[in-house]
Amino acid sequence: MKREAFLEKLRTGKPLVADGAMGTLLHDRGVGFESCFDELNLTNPALVASIHQEYIKAGAEVILTNTFGANRFKLERCGLEELLTEINQTGVELARRTIRASFKDVLIAGDVGPLGVRLAPFGRVQAEQARETFKEQIQALVEAGCDLIVIETMTDLYEIREAIAAAKEVNEDIAVVASMTFTRDDRTLLGDDPQKVAAKIFAAGADVIGINCSGGPNQLLRLLKKMKKEIPDGLFWVKPNAGWPEQISGRIFYPATAEYFGEYALAFWQAGARVIGGCCGTTPAHIQSIRQAVDVQEADTIPNGTTLEMTDEESIETETSEPSKFSQKLRNGKFVYSVEMQPPRGLATKKIIAGASMLVDSGADAINVADSPMARMRMSPWAVCSLLQHTVNVETILHFPTRGRNLLRVQGDLLAAHALGVRNVFVIMGDPTAIGDYPEAMDNFDLAPSGLVKLIKQRFNQGVDQSGSDIGQPTNFYVGCALNLTAPDPKREMDILKRKIHSGADFIITQPIYEAALIPNFLKAYQAAHEKLNIPLLIGIMPLVSARHAAFLHQEVPGISIPEGTHKRMQTAEENGTGPQEGIRIATELIKEVKSLAQGIYVTPSFSRFDYVAEIIENSK
């Protein structure tokens, strides 16, 4: 199709419906992620064609060729670079044959993905080399007869600019869609906001500005509105994922349903999208839902409609949505389970990964990663958080002590944690270095915990540092603070807690307790002294393993008091050789009492017995 004819088609009538994921369906039908999906055009064309056929049957008016990774850089890794032209042209031919068999009017979009290498100044591939590589693939697609070129899932404005230029050099009369993907923070991987992306893509000569992949429909609607405001007369292409992917039992799942996509189709249309489809995790059912939603709506009711338009309040809520699943669970009233893990002393990480995997399987909602507990040298906790989040797919809570950090280091460490994807932080004072491995180490600090909570919530989460200087974009931290329910000076403890809450603390974690009655007693006292406690409370639980362990905690650890009855139970159990089992029973009973008094527990494993914790979680659930 000629460029002007395609653009005129977008400007009039209802938006076009594009297809959904190719890779998701190929994987579901037995193709491993280690395989070259593009090669299937040659080795299993029937499979590729069947997926095209399903999307056309679902109502897609635009289908993308199975050529997302068919550029020279990516094909070289599979030893397939000599087949580049054949793979791309066969991809177009497969789409064409499927369309002919359907007897429907469907457009073929030649799919062009990222090169899989970094361009200068962030990599060693020069712009000219990138452009020539794009030209090679686009030339093959255009010669095979595709109707338009779609450059998608791009993260780098330098790279997408070269891809657009390459398409224009190959054929000025073919329409070009240029689509970027965004992180959870509504920025590209290189930190560009949607307004800048839209302006740069438009200036580079793209006919249609696109957003694809990223998160689910909610995020892409937010991004689309910002882009449309930047380029009011622009034409927009939107293909969201079916939500953020989750890994369960080794498989990847996407949460957004087909019905959910149908609801958002009209909102996309109203916000200015002229092509609407799906990306990772979407299926023909999602596309059919979009098709049905678009078909039942009269075109002239959308631009000035009011029923589909988001209110200002809804827009604000979307912009300031909670930063993590952990926070969402607390906000929705779910009782959560978090477990402390200590970073390794050396380089080995297999044990902590194995332990975290077991805890997640048993039902843990988050892993707390301690920072140099007992002032002993350990691996960086934010590195461990990042490792667990990417390897085990579990949310973490980073312990963030103020002791031993000046203002420069505090702020630098916060930026590092956020860049690594850590969103939940637990602010504490930290253990004095005098008790640890390096008693001569610096023990100074510039901020008390309440001051650090204020810095994070009232500065960093607003997009500025302590001095008020811009940090580029707001962080999205969810901040916890500590509480001792058996403090020797209850009034002082309550005053400090009030300062932390008024500074912006989102949740509270207590030191371990062994009596549930401590909770309502404290809540009543705090309300009488200050105000009703209105943020989630997580109760500390430390399973006992022996009578000697119970005696040590009671006698030597400040803030821990164990009732006489519990001592006697552990003593009797130890005499019968069942000390750990009794400790598990005591912890389970306590959690069941706590469930009506708090919103979660924070388990500190004794002697790194994560198997005990897993049993406690399973028993208490």
Protein architecture, described:
The chain has two domains: 317 residues, Homocysteine-binding-like domain (TIM Barrel, Alpha-Beta Barrel); 258 residues, TIM Barrel, CATH 3.20.20. The protein is an alpha/beta fold and 621 residues long. 47% of the residues are buried. α16 links the parallel β12 and β13. α22 runs antiparallel to α23 and α23 crosses α24. The chain is built from 24 helices and 18 strands.
User: Helices and strands: which structural class?
Assistant: alpha/beta
Q: What Rg, in angstroms, do the CA atoms define?
A: 28 Å
- What is the total number of structural domains? 2
Provide the β-strand percentage band: 5-15%
Question: Which topology of the largest domain does CATH recognise?
Answer: TIM Barrel
Strand line-up of the largest beta sheet: 1-10-7-6-5-4-3-2
CA-based shape:
elongated
Low-confidence stretches: 303-322
Largest sheet: 8 strands, parallel
